[in-house]
Structures are given as structure tokens and as C-alpha cells.
Please model this.
Amino acid sequence: MDKTENNKAWWLVLPVFLVVAFSAILPLMTVVNYSMQDTFGNNQFFWNGVGWFIELLDPSTDLGGRFFDALWRNLMFSGIILAIEVPLGIAVALAMPRQGWTVAACLIVMALPLLVPWNVVGTIWQVFARSDIGLFGAVVNGLGIPFNYSQNALSAWVTIVLMDVWHWTSLVALLSYAGLKSIPDAYYQAARIDGASGWAVFRKIQLPKMRRVLLIAVLLRFMDSFMIYTEPFVVTGGGPGNSTTFLSIDLVKLALGQFDLGKAAAVSIVYNLIILAVCWVFYTVITQMDAKGRRS
Amino acid sequence: MARIDLQDLAHSYHPNPASDADYALKPMTRTWDDGGAYALLGPSGCGKTTLLNIISGLIIPSRGKILFDGADISTLPTEKRNIAQVFQFPVIYDTMSVYDNLAFPLRNRRVPEKEVDARVREIAGMLDLGRDLSRPATGLTADAKQKISLGRGLVRSDVSAILFDEPLTVIDPHLKWELRSKIKELHRRLPLTLIYVTHDQTEALTIADQVVVMYDGGVMQSGSPEDLFERPDHTFVGKFIGSPGMNILPCRLDGTTATVGDQAIAVPNVGRPTGNGPLELGIRPEYVTLAPVGIGLPVQIKRIDDLGRSRIARVELSGQALIATVPEGASITGTEASVLLDPRALHLYEGGFRRAPTQEVRPQEVHHG
Model:
């Protein structure tokens, strides 16, 4: 079949090209541009090639050292909150009522922390955990356990982990609840007839049926906690010392505190690549599960 | 093995049922024999699933008792009753293989693994699942999954009754027939009481020896497929069983003469009406034959439906709609015709219930649908 070639059709792609160029390519290239240069102010830039990246990926240098420290802190934080929020969220979902007016009440109460602006969550916990006037901090101190998040690294970690658990466990719980609700009654009835114990029902019916939503919950919580900035910034400001300085906090210190635009741009790109890589892994896992699900 | 007795059994989903209408299942007493095949047949919402769930123990009845072989089990939990149940949608354990699915009820009851293996292989053989044993259960077709659900019930050697809750709903039409005969075959081979809930009369009539027709929480009639076809106890049974259902015509009665509109029809002697509701004349389309004008009762033809193997005529008799069978090879012209009613297949209903003739006359020849 003969097709008329008309290269004017390429003009039709132009609007999309412009939108993508202004929204993604140009900002990204600006960062790439900065990451190759150094500046000492006065809008003067000096070419540095891949120097920043070499320094960044070498933990023995100053830049590399603080980058890897922040990265480990971030991974540890994500690991801790996932280890708490996922089992806790599932437990809460299992304990939630299945019918009656209490369902609506529970859902609303569960949704409330999710509606609080992140800044406000930080402020609430900043006050709540204060060792002098905060209800939580003062009570813990009153019990004879020394607790001060502005001087003690452990206290600071306990505070921000508790804050994240308070803020986000309901997300995991709500997703798990949705997964639980989608299980037809016949499964539970069949399990009773088969003489299955409560644990067997959980392992063989509830958990497999929740697998998909749990994977999404883990993905969301990992990404969010890996990019966390506002709440620890409000509560601890990254301290005491650098004990709660996560990647995003460190990035802001580099870029806006020290005005090291080149280093900050290099950190941004590597940070971004890590997130893209994790996204890709999750995407692959989910699509593979989908393909498996379709075959059944 | 179990005989099942229902004694004054009733259930209401209301905590304090005030009237009859509050009962999803109206009080009933009946006995189901050990090893029998029973179908509970009725439209949606007639209480058949409620009754099934009471037998399986998923619902505790608000009134009455259920006995298995004379022992009262009304309040016994499901897992303590020796029953198996197959649900409308296949229930399989996604993460397990077909083998593990079948072994699950036995392992939960701590049966020794050697015995489990023997039972699983035996049942898988019966259900033609032998080749799929090592496969994950999640990748199978709906009918194979339903066989697994059935198999999980059958592996237990202590099962005395197996309950089916519309198990063929999600099965492809061409496989329904196959699975139906499989169930029938298993029932012949295993000493089980079989209770089968369905709204599909073909399923009920082919699987069961005794069909229990339910409507609005009550049992309308319980009998063999032939009883339900030839002598429906209630106009509901007449209309619900058969395709198309029974013709029901309002009539007046004078001795052995029923009058429909302005046409007199000779009927069996059923005694005097008691005045409990309107009188109706019932006859199945199979026993109404279309004939040329002048031979029988005059009718107007409205439409002829070709059912493939046979033809039926929708006609009007004195303004009443009636369905008649068109004899093979008969040519129909014009709208005027007449119908012949087989006098032995005429039934009189008063307030919906059949009035038995003082001398029961049975049709000699049976033409099923």
C-alpha cells in the first residue's frame, strides 16, 4: 500500500515536545549542567567535568562521606518504619470491624492522620515530644527514662520513627482493609468447613489476597520515607549533630546552606537515579505479578 | 452416612421476628434419607441458601432442630459437622498446589501424611485431576477449580453429606453437563447424602431423586421430578417447573364442569370448592394440542414459536392466554384454530393449592418437555 509521505506531520508533535521540554528536560539539564561545574558566587562558574561524581561516590572524601552517611540513615529509617508500619497496619486492618456503623467511624479516624499537612505533623510532634512541656517527652522523662530529642540521637530517632508510624500506619491499614474486604465470604466458610485454624486462614487466604495491595503499600511507604524532608526538618532540623540528617535534608544544606550548587546537583542526580532504580524494581515485580494473575 | 431430620426448623434474620414475612425460612419439618440426592429448587431469595447454610452450620437457626442420624447438631459449629460444601464461586487456596489444596482439610485434622497421600490420589483420580496434582491451583480453569472445591469435601472419609450451593454458575455451558454427570457419578460411588441448591430446573431434575421446590421461605412441594411435572401441588410449582410452565386459567366450577370464559371443560371430580381463594384450571402445554377449527375448544392463534425440536403456539381461549403444542407436520393457516386438552392432565387449584381428585387419574403416557 502506498503511503503519502508528508513530513509536515512532525509539527503535530511539537506541542508535546515543548511541554516535555519545559517541564522535564530543561530543568533536568540545568541540574546536569550545574553538576559539571563549580561556583564561588558572583555567577561565576568553573568547569569540573565528572569531578563531583567521582568525589561523591568515594566515601573517603568529605562529600562522599556525608552522602553515604545520609544514604545509610535514609535506608535505615525506611527499613525501620516499614518493619513497624506493615505488620502493624495489617494487624489494625484485621482488627477493624467488617460491618455496621463502626466501619465508617473507624475509616474516618484512620484517615485523619493522612489529612494532616506534613508541616503540622512535624510541629505537633515537635511540641508533643519536648522533654520540658511536651506530654510525651515529659511523661517519658517523668518515668525516669532520659529522653531529649534535641540532645540525644536515640531520642531523636524514636521521635521521628514514632511520628512516621503515627502519620502513615493508617495508609497501610486502609489498603490492607480494602484487600481484606475483597475476599468473598465463601472463602471463610470453606476454611471453616476445611477445619482451618485462624492462623491458617491468615496465611492461606488473607495474606495471599492482600499481597497486591501490600506491595503497593510497601512501595508508597518506601518512596515516601526515602524522600522524607519536612517532618524531621521541623522536629530535629537534622540533629542532634547529623544524626537525623537524611538525603533530602543534606541536599538542602548543600544547595541553600553552603550554596555548593555543583555538589548539590551531583547529589540530586544520584538521589534521583536511586529512586528510579527502586521504582523500576517495584514496577517489574508488580507487572510480573499481574502477568501471573492474568494466567490464572 | 447420615439421615437428616429437620424438626420445626425456621430462621429469621431479624432479632425479633414479628410476622411470617420476617422469616427467611418458614417453619418446616422433613426427613432426608441417608444416601439420597435432594435438590432445593427455587427462585432467588426463596430461602434455599439459608436452609443450606443452616445444615452446614454457617447459620444457627432461630427455631427448631436439625438432626444428623438422630443426634441434635443444631448448634454444633461447621467444623464439627461431617459435611462438605461447594460454593457458587470456586474456593481455592491460591498459594497452594492442587495436591496441597486437596490435602488441606486432612492436614488440618492431623491425619497421618501417608493416609493423606492415599486419599488425595484416590479423590484426584475420581475427579480427573490426577495429572494436575503438582500444578499451582491458581492457574486452572473455573471448572477445574470447582472440582478442587468438590475434592476438598470428598477427601475427608468422615463426610456424610455434601452440600452444593449453585456450583455450576460460573462454569461454561458445555462443561456444565460434564460436571453435572461427574457429580451424579460420584454420588453413585460414594455413600453420601447430597443436597444441591439451584434455581435451574434442568440441574435439579437431572441430579436429584427428590426435588424440594421452595418459594418465599416455604416448601411448595417435595417429590420426584415426575411428581413435580405431572402433579404440581401448587400453581407456583406448575409455572416454575417446565419450560414453558403450566397454563393456569381462572375458572368457575360446577360439579365436574369447569368454565373458562364461556367455554365449558369437563374435569375430574374434586368435590365442592371450600371458598379458600379463587379457582384455577391448570394444564401443561405438553397436554394441550393445537388442532384444526371445529375439533376442540375454539382459540385464536397469536404466535407460533419454533423451539427447534418442536413448535409451540401461543393462543387465546376466551380471552385467556394459553400455550399449546403444535403436532409434528401440522400446517397452520389463519388465526382460527382449536385445542384439545388431555382430560387426565387437567388439575384444579383453589387459592393456588391443588385439589386432588376424589379418584386420582394418572396420564398413561408422559411427554417430557
Remarks:
- The radius of gyration of chain B is 24 Å.
